[in-house]
Design goal:
The complex is a heterodimer of chains A (256) and B (274). With 256 residues, chain A is of the alpha/beta class. Chain A contains nine helices and twelve strands. Chain A has helices at residues 45-52, 85-92, 110-120, 126-139, 155-167, 185-199, 212-218, 236-241, 246-255, and strands at residues 7-16, 19-29, 34-39, 60-65, 68-69, 72-74, 80-82, 95-98, 173-177, 205-208, 221-226, 229-234. In chain A, the strands form three sheets. In chain A, strands 8-9-10-3-11-12 form a six-stranded mixed sheet, with helices on both faces. In chain A, helix 3 packs parallel to helix 5. The longest helix of chain A has 15 residues, at 185-199. The model of chain A has no long low-confidence stretch (mean pLDDT 92). Chain B is mainly alpha-helical and 274 residues long. Chain B has one domain (56-271): MetI-like fold (Orthogonal Bundle), CATH 1.10.3720.10. Helix content of chain B is 81%, strand content 0%. Chain B has 13 helices and no strands. In chain B, 26% of the residues are buried. The chains are: A alpha/beta (256), B mainly alpha (274).
Chain lengths: 256, 274
């Protein structure tokens, strides 16, 4: 199982009503790969990421996490629906997603947010979960803020807490959906440095981001999405240094 | 989403020390009003006819118990029904959604008194027509008045709280539920760990207000011969021909009950993290 790619996407298509957002995407992320997905708005980046943990159900195509393909069946509406709920829940418990809007649970303290999934989904004992959570919060720089409620924290602090929440499940891959897009510019740096630290640990990560400099720095593989297809992909030196497609050239110059 | 600290402090009154509060009482116009109130209270106690009170005390105590039982039982059971009513309107399949919306609309759109009478005089008389019902164990209860009072109050509370919970469930930000789902929580877990607690916290101030309002609805059961406090006072008025004393007594008791409920429920609200 360790040789299986962490995430494998095979000919993924997704339509919302009459709008086709993903038009046949195939992508593989090996163990330890850090994949950055870039592209303009409406290119389907977030939809692609959300198909990996089935927050969006594809219209057709397959997604496999560490060799295990999600079992889907045809739904009445012409797309796919989850055939095996338990399988999806089991796989999701070992993925983790960092959302653009943090999505911490405001009725729980930061510490309680981080121990919630280990205790209630993974069945960890409370003492062990708290111990691990304290270490993780220390690691992301929130050691002194454990008993604060998310509503009283800055965006950067909330996002770092959200990252700690994902780390608490020891994920086999981490998914980042524009993690810094909702942050004030001064706070972007603190979150990026945490992600950079994680990247150095050879964790498998898939990031949708607008931070080009960061993507260039940290990613092992960059994917440029345009209008629902992968227009170009490759190592960051090639994508940013020697872009081949004219659209990609235009995109980089407009964002740089 | 985070609320800035300052907004919360606008809504909640600032914490003044008891000394400052008491000294606020010492201003001239407040002293005069306080003196008038005490004078009025003393006059009421000394000059009015309270001779009936000791004689009727046991009956009044029983009546109070009935009032409280009607209140708390209808609130608890009504709330339990309010949850599926609210949930069905937010995320149910369309037949359930239709039924729940229809139920809440009809009950909230008609007077409680009317519902009470339809249950007691309508259903109550109807049940008596069927020998199968008369011979069953249920007849012991169905020929008394209090089950109909309980049912009407419960149905009414459930409909109003169902509407409130609908708004509360719909208002929990979708992202929080999505995050719970994304971490592998089953739908039941998402409900018990995130959706329901968040909806409850949002609705709690409104819910506590509704409980206090329910207290004001309980006297209506007196119209279907349930001997609550109001019914006992009516009896007192009829036998003693006194008007003000019994009614003032009723006012005082309801004020005290409301006060206790308000204080108790506010304490409960403050214990809940938000």
């Amino acid at each position: 199982m360790a040789n299986e790619p962490a995430i494998e996407i095979r000919d993924l298509r997704k339509r919302f009503g009459s709008l086709e957002v993903l038009k046949g995407i195939s992508l593989t992320a090996g163990q330890g790969d850090i994949v950055a997905i870039i592209g303009g708005s409406g290119s389907g980046k977030s939809t692609l990421l959300r198909c990996i943990n089935l927050l969006e159900r594809p219209t057709s195509g397959e997604v496999a996490i560490q060799g295990e393909t999600y079992r889907m069946r045809a739904s009445r509406h012409g797309d796919l629906e989850i055939a095996d709920r338990r399988q999806v829940q089991r796989i999701r418990a070992h993925l983790g997603m960092v959302f653009q809007n943090f999505n911490l649970w405001p009725h729980r303290t930061v510490l309680e947010n981080v121990i919630e999934v280990p205790i209630h989904v993974l069945g960890m004992k409370r003492d062990e979960a708290v111990h691990r959570a304290e270490k993780l919060l220390d690691r992301v720089g929130l050691g002194s803020k454990q008993s604060m409620y998310p509503g009283f924290m800055s965006g950067g602090q909330q996002q770092r807490a959200a990252i700690a929440r994902v780390l608490a499940v020891d994920p086999l891959a981490m998914l980042f959906d524009e993690p810094t897009s909702a942050l004030d510019p001064e706070l972007v740096g603190e979150v990026l440095s945490v992600i950079r630290d994680l990247a150095a640990e050879q964790r498998t990560m898939m990031l949708v981001t607008h931070e080009m400099a960061f993507a260039r720095d940290v990613a092992s593989h960059v994917v440029f999405l345009r209008e629902g297809v992968i227009e170009e992909q490759g190592p960051p030196e090639q994508i940013f240094g020697d872009p081949r497609s004219p659209h990609l050239k235009q995109f980089i110059s407009s964002v740089a | 989403m985070s609320e800035p600290h300052s907004l919360a402090s606008l809504v909640r009154p600032s914490r003044t020390s008891p000394i400052t509060k008491l000294s606020g009482l010492l201003e001239p116009h407040r002293l005069i009003l306080l003196a008038l109130f005490i004078a009025g209270l003393v006059a009421a106690i000394l000059l009015m006819d309270w001779s009936w009170l000791p004689r009727y005390l046991p009956k009044l105590w029983e009546g109070l118990q009935i009032t409280l039982i009607m209140l708390f039982s209808s609130v608890v059971v009504g709330f339990l029904f309010a949850l599926p009513l609210g949930l069905a309107q937010v995320s149910g399949v369309w037949p359930l959604r239709w039924l729940a919306t229809g139920f809440c609309t009809v009950i909230r759109g008609t007077p409680l008194l009317l519902q009470l009478w339809l249950f007691y005089f309508g259903l109550g008389a109807l049940f008596g027509q069927f020998p199968e019902i008369r011979d069953s164990w249920a007849w012991d209860y169905l020929r008394q008045a209090w089950p109909y009072g309980f049912i009407a109050l419960t149905v009414s509370f459930a409909a109003y709280q169902g509407e409130i919970m609908r708004g509360a469930f719909a208002g929990v930000p979708h992202g929080e539920l999505e995050a719970a789902e994304a971490f592998g929580m089953s739908r039941l877990k998402v409900f018990t760990r995130v959706w329901f607690p968040r909806a409850l916290h949002r609705a709690l101030p409104t819910l506590t207000g509704e409980i206090i309002l329910q207290l004001k609805s309980t006297p209506l059961v007196a119209t279907i011969t349930v001997m609550d406090l109001y019914a006992v006072i009516t009896q007192v008025r009829q036998t003693t021909y006194l008007t003000y004393e019994p009614l003032l007594f009723l006012v005082a008791v309801y004020l005290c009950l409301s006060g206790i409920l308000i204080v108790g429920l506010r304490w409960l609200e403050n214990r809940v993290p938000h």
